[in-house]
Design a protein that fits this description.
single chain; about 500 residues; alpha/beta; Leucine-rich repeat, LRR (right-handed beta-alpha superhelix); 16-stranded mixed beta sheet; 16 strands; globular
Length: about 500
C-alpha cells in the first residue's frame, strides 16, 4: 500500500505538526513512514518537552497531568486530546520515552519539564546527556525518587552554560547538586529547591571563604525558593543575602527551620552590600519575601548562626524592626504563623518605607492592632492583597480605614476578627475590584452584612467581581444566604458556608 501522505509538501506537514500534541505526533509517525523519518529532522517540533501542572479535576485512582510539545514561539498546548481525555503521564513517560524524545530533539531542546516523573531513572536522564541536549534553558524535575544525586550533578553540568531556570524537587537532590548549579551556571536566574530535604546550609557559599573573583562568578539569582527544606535555617539566609543580595528579588523560606532572626541577617547583609549602583548600596533588591510557618523564636543553634553565615552583629544594636529600612522595593510580604514578632511598629515601618507594597500576609500575628491598618491605608494605597486572619487586635476601626484607603484590594482575609456588619458595608461600598473575601469565624457578622457586601448601597457592591466568598462558622448567618449569593454572583463564583 502506498504511503498516504507521501505527496504532502514538508512545509505543510510542519505547519500541521506544530499544532499537534505530543501523543498525536506519535500516532502520525505510526501512520506514515515519510512522516516518521521526516520528524527525526524537524527539530523545531521538539524544542519544548513539558509536563504541566495538574488539571482541575484529578481522578482518585491516578494522577493526571498536562503535557505538550511546542516550539519556543508557539503558545502552550492544551492538556486534552481530541477526545477530551487527559494523558496519564504516570503510565506513559518512562526512560525509553525520554531517550526517544532526546534523540529527536538533540541540541534543539530548550525546555525539559517533567512535573511528575516517578518512573524516570538515571538511564532516561543520561539519554539527555548522550544526545547532546546542551541548549536547555529550563530544566524541571519533580516528584522523582529514582534519579541519583550523581546523575543530577552530571545533567546540571552538561546544560549549565545556557541554563536559566532550574526546578528540582526530587528526593535525592542534595548539596552537591546545588553547589554545581551555583558554580557552573552563570546565567541562572531562578532556582527552586522546594521540598529537597537533603539540602542543608552547606549548599550555599560561605561569604568569608569567597574571593572577589569567586563572588563575581556567581550567577545573578533573581528568585530562590526553599519551601519545605527542613535542613535550611538562618545560616542559609545570611549566606544567600551576602552572595545574591544585589540581584535577588524573590525569596521563599516557608516551612524551613529558619527563625524570625533571619530578618536581622537580611538587614545586616544589606548594610554590608557594596555591589550594584550607588543608589542601591546599603539595600536589598527584594521584591517578594515569604516566611510562612517558620519558627518565630531563636532556636538552640542561633548563637552560632552569625559566625556560620559570615555575619557578626550585636543583638542589642540590631533588631528585626530594622529590616524594613533595607527593602525599599518590597512589593509582597508574607510573615504568617502564630507569633509575637509582628507588631504594629513593624507593619507601620513596612508601610512607610515600602510604598510599592501590593500584598501583605500577617495572619495569626497576636500583637497586631488597628494601627497597622491605618498605616497601610495611608502609605500603601496600591495594596491589592491583605490577610489579617487571626489578628485578634484588628477591629472595625482598622478595617474601615483599610477599605477606604486601599480601593484596589482584590483579596482580603479577615477571618476570626471581631468585626461587625459596619465593616462589611464599607467593603461593599468601596472595594469594586474585590475577588476574594474570607470571613470565616467572624462571630459578630450577620446575614445583613453579607448582603451589604454583595449588593452594596446602590445594588452593585461586589457582585460582578467576587469569585470566592467564605463565611464558615459564622453562626449569625442563615444558610439561605448561600443560595441568595449564588443567584447574584458570577456563575463560577465559590461560596463557602456551614458550621463544620
Amino acid at each position: 500500500m502506498p504511503d498516504p501522505v507521501a505527496s504532502l509538501p514538508s512545509e505543510i506537514a510542519i505547519l500541521i505538526f506544530r499544532k499537534l500534541r505530543l501523543h498525536e505526533i506519535v500516532h502520525c509517525m505510526l501512520v506514515s513512514k515519510t512522516w516518521y523519518y521526516s520528524l527525526d529532522g524537524w527539530a523545531v517540533l521538539w524544542s519544548r518537552i513539558d509536563t504541566n501542572s495538574m488539571p482541575e479535576r484529578v481522578q482518585p485512582a491516578m494522577v493526571l497531568h498536562q503535557w505538550g510539545v511546542v516550539d519556543g514561539d508557539a503558545s502552550t498546548i492544551a492538556s486534552k486530546n481530541s477526545n477530551g481525555d487527559f494523558i496519564d503521564v504516570t503510565r506513559s513517560l518512562q526512560d525509553r520515552n525520554i531517550a526517544t524524545l532526546a534523540r529527536r530533539a538533540g541540541p534543539a531542546l530548550r525546555r525539559l519539564s517533567l512535573s511528575f516523573s516517578p518512573q524516570v531513572t538515571d538511564a532516561g536522564i543520561y539519554s539527555v546527556i548522550h544526545y547532546r541536549c546542551v541548549n536547555i534553558r529550563y530544566l524541571g524535575l519533580l516528584a522523582n525518587n529514582h534519579i541519583s544525586s550523581g546523575m543530577l550533578v552530571a545533567l546540571v553540568g552538561h546544560v549549565s552554560q545556557r541554563l536559566e531556570h532550574l526546578v528540582l524537587s526530587t528526593a535525592k537532590t542534595d548539596d552537591a547538586v546545588v553547589k554545581k548549579a551555583l558554580s557552573c551556571a552563570p546565567n541562572l536566574v531562578h532556582l527552586d529547591l522546594s521540598y529537597c530535604r537533603l539540602v542543608t546550609d552547606d549548599a550555599f557559599p560561605r561569604p568569608e571563604h569567597m574571593s572577589e573573583v569567586d563572588r563575581q562568578s556567581l550567577p545573578h539569582l533573581r528568585a530562590l525558593a526553599l519551601i519545605g527544606c527542613t535542613r535550611v535555617g538562618d545560616v542559609s539566609v545570611g549566606r544567600i543575602a551576602r552572595a545574591f543580595g544585589t540581584s535577588l528579588q524573590t525569596l521563599d523560606i516557608s516551612y524551613t527551620i529558619a527563625t524570625s532572626r533571619c530578618l536581622c541577617f537580611l538587614a545586616v547583609a544589606a548594610s554590608m552590600n557594596q555591589g550594584g549602583s550607588q543608589a542601591a548600596q546599603g539595600t536589598l533588591s527584594l521584591h517578594t519575601l515569604r516566611m510562612n510557618k517558620i519558627a518565630f523564636a531563636p532556636g538552640p543553634q542561633s548563637a552560632q548562626s552569625e559566625a556560620d553565615a559570615g555575619i557578626q552583629f550585636n543583638v542589642n544594636t540590631w533588631s528585626n524592626h530594622q529590616f524594613y529600612m533595607y527593602v525599599p522595593q518590597l512589593t509582597s510580604l508574607t510573615i504568617a504563623g502564630e507569633n509575637y514578632m509582628v507588631t504594629d511598629a513593624f507593619v507601620v515601618g513596612i508601610a512607610r518605607n515600602c510604598p510599592q507594597l501590593t500584598s501583605i500576609d500577617v495572619r495569626d500575628s497576636i500583637r497586631l492592632g488597628h494601627a497597622s491598618m491605618f498605616a497601610l491605608s495611608e502609605y500603601c494605597t496600591g495594596l491589592e492583597y491583605a490577610s489579617f486572619g487571626g489578628c485578634l487586635g484588628c477591629l472595625d476601626t482598622g478595617v474601615l480605614a483599610l477599605v477606604r484607603g486601599c480601593l484596589r484590594l482584590k483579596g482580603l482575609n479577615l477571618s476570626e476578627l471581631g468585626i461587625t456588619n459596619a465593616s462589611l458595608a464599607a467593603i461593599g461600598s468601596n472595594l469594586h475590584y474585590l475577588e476574594t473575601l474570607v470571613l470565616d469565624m467572624c462571630r459578630l457578622i450577620s446575614t445583613e452584612g453579607i448582603r451589604a457586601v454583595v449588593e452594596g448601597p446602590n445594588g452593585m457592591g461586589c457582585m460582578f467581581t467576587l469569585a470566592e466568598l467564605s463565611f464558615m462558622r459564622c453562626r449569625r448567618i442563615n444558610n439561605d444566604v448561600v443560595e441568595w449569593c449564588k443567584q447574584r454572583l458570577r456563575p463560577n463564583a465559590i461560596v463557602r458556608s456551614g458550621l463544620c
